[in-house]
Specification:
Elements (H helix, E strand, L loop, with lengths): L1 H11 L12 H10 L3 E11 L19 E13 L2 E14 L1 E2 L2 E2 L6 E10 L2 E6 L6 E3 L3 H11 L11
Parallel strand pairs: 3-7
Antiparallel strand pairs: 1-2, 1-6, 2-3, 4-5, 6-7, 6-8
Helix pairs in contact: 2-3
Amino acid sequence: MRWLALALALCATQASALSCLQPDPVRAFNAAETDEADWIVVQGQLIFDETQLPHRDVETQHLDLPATQIPALLRGTALTQNGFTRAFDREITLEVQCFAVWCGGAASNTPYLAFLKREKDQLTAYADPCGGKLFPEPARKDLNRVTACFQGKRCVERPGR
């Protein structure tokens, strides 16, 4: 009878793992470039209340919950033709998305390279479980790669895995 309980418990858990491409700022840039929406690229300190981050588990994974909208502040510099040179200090929305038991995440008071979607007067940073538009503690080489893309220079994505 124990084996039956164990089998039922295993069936109730998530059967497959989340499969994502390795996050790459150049891939995010190219996706934003081909999107009809307006995007801006900012590098800076993201500040928000981490207690508002969503948490999902096996019991709630089947619920179709909306993304979590968290008020945030982003202070840093926006991308221009000359690199990250335009001062940026704005309130934004951090939208955290969950897929089954996996949720995107972020850490407050941490530097990020963020791709922000502009809708009307609102800017939104997206944190999903695959990490495709929000990059913590960006390396100088990644900032340089994104700048080169913006300037129309060589813009090559890292190979996916």
